[in-house]
């Protein structure tokens, strides 16, 4: 019998990873709660609306609103009213965010290297493939 289920191990790893990333990003004014995920998505697709962003990062609307407000206050994101839908906002990275993007990517890359430091290249590929397969399967109805 295994001491932990796959889900529990994934949960442990995620909590540790989020805590560690929060520490590494804190000096840059980026907090926890996945703010880096929101910023990466906005940098990748400037002008995305908030509803689409919520879908992309797989968080709920309340978390998206809170994170966007925090990123806006930190000077990384601007919100503009959508011309086609006045109830919606378009999100754009600021110059500060664009300048920070290489540093953000370096922090994330460094942390990923740390997470997989005890794995071979083949094990990393296999792990990635298995996690992707699990993720893709979440779209299918549960039995």
Q: What would you note in describing this structure?
A:
By secondary structure, the chain is mainly alpha-helical. The chain is globular. The chain has helices at residues 6-25, 35-44, 50-57, 61-73, 95-115, 121-137; strands at 48-49, 77-81, 89-93. The chain has a three-stranded antiparallel β-sheet. Helix 2 (35-44) packs across helix 5. The mean pLDDT is 90. The longest helix has 21 residues, at 95-115. The protein has six helices and three strands.
Proportion of β residues? 5-15%
Please report the total strand number as a whole number: 3
In the predicted model, the low-confidence regions spanning at least 5 consecutive residues are none
Count every helix, treating DSSP H or I runs of 4 or more residues as helices: 6
H/E order of the elements?
HHEHHEEHH
Shape: globular
The largest β sheet comes out as: 3 strands, antiparallel
Output mean pLDDT.
90
**N- to C-terminal distance:** 24 Å
Overall structural class, as computed from helix and strand content, comes to mainly alpha
Order of strands across the biggest sheet?
A: 1-3-2
Whole-angstrom Rg: 17 Å
Q: What is the helix content?
A: 55-70%
């Amino acid at each position: 019998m295994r001491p932990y289920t796959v889900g529990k191990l994934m949960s442990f790893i995620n909590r540790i990873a989020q805590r560690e990333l929060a520490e590494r990003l804190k000096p840059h004014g980026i907090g926890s709660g996945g703010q880096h995920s929101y910023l990466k998505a906005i940098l990748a697709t400037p002008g995305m609306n908030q509803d689409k962003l919520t879908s992309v990062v797989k968080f709920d609307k309340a978390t998206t609103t809170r994170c966007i407000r925090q990123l806006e206050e930190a000077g990384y994101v601007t919100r503009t009213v959508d011309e086609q839908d006045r109830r919606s906002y378009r999100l754009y990275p600021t110059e500060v965010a664009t300048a920070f993007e290489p540093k953000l990517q370096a922090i994330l890359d460094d942390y990923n290297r740390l997470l997989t430091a005890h794995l071979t290249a083949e094990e990393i590929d296999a792990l990635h493939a298995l996690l992707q397969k699990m993720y893709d399967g979440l779209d299918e109805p549960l039995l």
